[in-house]
Amino acid sequence: LVGMNGAGKSTFFKALMGFVRPSTGKIRLNGLRVNQAQKDQTVAYVPQNEGIDYAFPVSVWDVVMMGRYGAMNIFRIPRESDRRAVVHALERVDLLDLRGRPIGSLSGGQRKRAFLARAIAQRASVLLLDEPFAALDVMTIKMLQEIIVNLQVEEKITCLVTDHQAKSILKITDSAMILNNGKIVAQDSPSNLIKDSGAIKSYFGDNFKIN
Questions:
Q1: 180-188 long-range contacts, Cβ below 8 Å, gap at least 24?
Q2: Cα-atom radius of gyration of the chain, to the nearest Å?
Q3: d(Cα 133, Cα 141) in Å, to the nearest integer?
Q4: How far is CA 101 from CA 61, 71, 83, 105, in A?
Q5: Residue 67 to residues 39, 76, 133, 200, 211: CA-CA distances in angstroms?
Q6: Within the chain, which residues score under 50 in pLDDT?
Q7: What is the value of pTM for the model shown?
Q8: Which of 24, 48, 51, 162 qualifies as a cystine partner to 1, CB 3.0-4.6 A?
């Protein structure tokens, strides 16, 4: 999902999570209503801002284990299956060696990977990533892109990714949607959208870059 700030990308994700209600229409995730999909842990969400106090002494392991809370009992005592899920998620994002580090001691790119690991640990079939490449260097973006592609190909997870720069998304997706003021401007394969970049640019002006 591509669009400038205020295009409606984050609002769309919040609707998929049940945080806001659509004014018209209905939402289904794998055929389930939003509330049922949440109960079944069908969808995991990585927002732009996590709202975590990085001065609080919580480890990377503890942050990723939060992704398992929905599968635990009320006492939140991890089972062996929960620990395996966390190890798997940390291995996926190459942070297993840093599992004991305080989350606040990580770099911005490492934190992004830690929160992605938390979502992976949930073992959802749909993963929502809201501007995961924002404020990251080129090497970290490339690493995250590779992780996202592997999740789709190897684990068959449906990944929905938003960004305000099309080039970050078109490399990792087989379908793209461009939003403007809450409306769909275009929806097609990345190659076709690139071919139509002139028409799309007319909606956004010179600041919109597609390749």
A1: 180/3, 180/4, 180/7, 180/204, 181/6, 181/7, 181/8, 182/7, 182/8, 182/11, 183/8, 185/3
A2: 18
A3: 6
A4: 8, 24, 17, 7
A5: 13, 11, 21, 38, 34
A6: none
A7: 0.87
A8: 162
